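The instructor's notes for this session suggest beginning with a concrete chain rather than abstract definitions. Hand out the sequence below and ask the class to guess, before any prediction is shown, which regions might be ordered.
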Amino acid sequence: VQLEVSGGGLVQPGGSLTLSCAASGFTISSAVMSWRRQAPGKERELVATISDISGPSNYLNSVKGRFTISRDTAKNTVYLQMKDLKPEDTAMYYCRASKLGGDYWGQGIQVTVSS
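After discussion, reveal the predicted structure:
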């Protein structure tokens, strides 16, 4: 099982970024996929999940209406589209797959929102 994360970087407040999580070794439709983030000095928090049962769900209150989780099963990839980014969105972002056999994490990717 591998999760390859890409798309992070530096963006100005109000800007947009899309993170990608390309999975291999399993099919994303067999798992609950989620994006999580951790800011310096803070605990890791759930941003959003997507699954066959629940669809896109469990959005963090502070990102509702700005972030969208989606997936492309043909590409076996999960996305996090982030709009109207705020400095408080600055964090290391992680992709996680929860499936029978355990949880699997992709490498973290930095998102920095700053002018």
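Then share the key points. The two ends are 37 Å apart (CA to CA). The mean pLDDT is 96.
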